[in-house]
Design goal:
This protein has 13 helices and eight strands. By secondary structure, it is of the alpha/beta class. The protein has an eight-stranded mixed sheet, with helices on both faces. It starts with 8 loop residues before the first strand and ends with a helix.
């Protein structure tokens, strides 16, 4: 269901005590692609081919709890998820990797860059402010997207997300995308595959656990330790790509990430693009990534 055929190779990799499914294409410096919600590795299909053609080893992973990766009951905190990324870089036999993340994957890229700097060559984030810039919005509920609050409830969000064969996934993808993308020929396929992916046993619950830890940890000691661990400028350049029409992660929040940027960082705003730059504007996004990676290598 989630191992979609293509020019890439599917395999399982053991990292940080769990099994992670990856799709891999190309040879060269490692570029690790980290997806967001409510997606899976396939959201990077355009970048897998583009990066491989540009001379990189592109690897798209199903994050912990998603797709064909393991779905353990625990481990959805920032420390463990960053450890998954670091462990995957090592398990793939690389000394360092360029991290590219969308939304939740972007937050993990920021986090791994701060916690495991020796393993990171650069960080590229799509629709993903720095975790501490985003955390400030959690303190102002009026600025929170309604789904973040809904996902804090027990059991109900999982049922809500999966009922009617994942109908809510289709609604989220539609409402979070720019209007041009909603009429794109591939949009129906994107909705179909993401609906199928969220129905894989355990995925809906795992996805909710990301959001639950992010909000609830702010009142606990692990949340304070996490904030201290990531509250430092990165030592590597950061590329921020943001859709000007993103209703989930506001551009102003992304720009508030400036205190944590490394040297040589860049910000690119894409007009007419919503929350999914890698899918809504795949050619532009891939071009920005390859140009940035060449300068960062």
């Amino acid at each position: 269901m989630v191992r979609v055929a293509g020019p890439w190779t599917h395999r399982d990799v053991s990292a940080n005590g769990i099994r992670l499914h990856v799709a891999e294409l190309g040879e060269g410096p490692l570029v690790l692609l980290l997806h967001g919600f409510p997606e899976f590795w396939w959201s990077w299909r355009h970048q897998l081919t583009a990066l491989a053609e540009a001379g990189y080893r592109a690897v798209a992973v199903d994050l912990r709890g998603y797709g064909d990766s393991d779905k353990p009951p625990r481990g959805y905190d920032g420390f463990t998820l960053a450890g998954d990324v670091a462990g995957l870089v090592k398990a793939l036999g690389a000394q360092r990797a360029h991290l590219v993340g969308h939304a939740w994957g972007g937050l993990l890229a920021w986090t791994a860059g701060a916690m495991h700097p020796r393993l990171v060559s650069s960080v590229s984030t799509l629709s993903a402010p720095h975790p501490l810039a985003l955390r400030r919005t959690f303190r102002r509920p009026s600025r929170l997207n309604p789904h973040v609050l809904r996902f804090q409830l027990p059991l109900y969000p999982e049922r809500w997300l999966t009922r009617e064969n994942g109908l809510q996934v289709a609604k989220l993808l539609s409402s979070w995308s720019g209007p041009k993308y909603r009429s794109a020929p591939e949009f129906d396929e994107v909705i179909r595959r993401c609906r199928q992916a969220v129905l894989v046993q355990g995925v809906a619950h795992s996805a909710m656990e990301y959001y639950r830890w992010a909000v609830r940890s702010q009142l606990r000691s692990d949340g304070r330790r996490f904030a201290e661990a990531v509250d430092k400028p990165l030592h590597v350049p950061v590329l921020q790509v943001h859709g000007a029409l993103d209703p989930v992660m506001l551009e102003s929040t992304a720009r508030a990430s400036a205190p944590w940027l490394g040297p040589g960082s860049e910000f690119r705003s894409l007009p007419e693009v919503g929350h999914f730059p890698n899918q809504e504007a795949p050619h532009t996004t891939s071009k920005l990534l390859t140009e940035f990676l060449r300068k960062s290598s």
